[in-house]
Design goal:
289 residues; alpha/beta; 7-stranded mixed beta sheet; 12 helices
Length: 289
């Protein structure tokens, strides 16, 4: 399948690699020009044949808004735009309705997998019509590992699902971080690295995040090379805001969000774990000067 990909950074570049390895033709564009196949969005549109598929993998907010607005003036009715950013689902619903009025298809795709995606695949949570999802299914089947794809619902459902996914991620990371700090604070001289490594086998708390944490501790046992600082990238806030709107209690996710606010004021061991995990799966490195 031939498709256009806007954004060739950590996520977009890895996705292009995985798609090409499976035989898909990817025409890549990035504003910096690095690794790009074309020099502009116009050239990208001209390099594709109707019905065109253009997938954007650039930061949410203004960059995605500008790119989709420009694409809408370059594409034709029947073409499909996929937004793979961590966009607010309200924006996705609005964009989908606006593009539909002009005859375009729109799919909002929540993408998880980080820098490990090219080898392990990307979990995909998508929203859109059955028709558009069906047309894009060869791409989804290539990008996602077996069982790692869901057509979550109509436009907006993909990014809503990814928002909740990232909220849960906040809570899981915070739990591992607090456990790491508590083990290390004990007077019993506990082998913290060994204990957490053992949890990977047979324990009910084993997970890929735990695997990443154990690897990070092996590289830097006390995480001295990291600041105890973790950004919140938006989805955690949105998850808590939606929970308040819908009257759904999310105390663990809310606490994890506020813990990230605390990290900006205090260099704690727990926040070093959060920083290490974010760096391990997404390349969000916060190193000491």
């Amino acid at each position: 399948m031939r498709m256009g990909l806007v954004g060739l950074g950590r996520m977009g570049g890895g996705m292009a690699q995985r798609l090409r390895a499976a035989g898909h033709e990817v025409v890549g564009y990035t504003r910096s020009g690095e690794h790009a196949d074309v020099g502009s969005l116009r050239e990208l549109a001209e390099a594709l044949s109707p019905p065109r598929v253009v997938w954007t993998m650039i930061p949410a907010g203004d960059p995605t808004e500008k790119a989709i607005t420009e694409l809408a003036d370059l594409l034709e009715a029947g073409d499909i735009v996929v937004d793979g950013a961590n966009s607010n689902y309200h924006d996705s619903i609005r964009r989908g309705a606006s593009l539909a009025e002009r005859g375009f298809g729109f799919v909002d795709a929540g993408v998880s997998g980080g820098v490990w995606g090219p080898d392990n695949g990307y979990c995909l949570m998508v929203g859109g019509t059955d028709e558009h999802i069906g047309h894009l299914r060869p791409l989804f089947d290539t990008l996602a590992p077996s069982g790692g794809f869901v057509h979550a619902g109509p436009v907006g459902a993909g990014h809503f699902t990814k928002m909740v996914h990232n909220g849960i991620e906040y809570g899981l990371m915070q739990s591992y971080a607090e456990g790491y700090e508590l083990l290390g604070a004990s007077e019993l001289g506990i082998d913290v690295a060994g204990a957490m490594a053992a949890w990977r086998y047979g324990s009910v708390v084993r997970s890929w995040l735990l695997e990443l944490l154990v690897a990070a501790i092996a590289d830097d046992p006390d995480l001295d090379g990291l600041r105890g600082y973790a950004e919140d990238s938006g989805e955690g806030r949105w998850t808590v805001q939606e929970a308040v709107r819908l009257g759904v209690p999310v105390p663990a996710i809310s606490s994890a969000l506020y813990a990230r606010f605390v990290s900006r004021q205090d260099d704690s061991p727990a926040m070093k774990v959060i920083a290490a995990l974010r760096n391990a799966f997404g390349g969000h490195e916060v190193r000491r000067d």
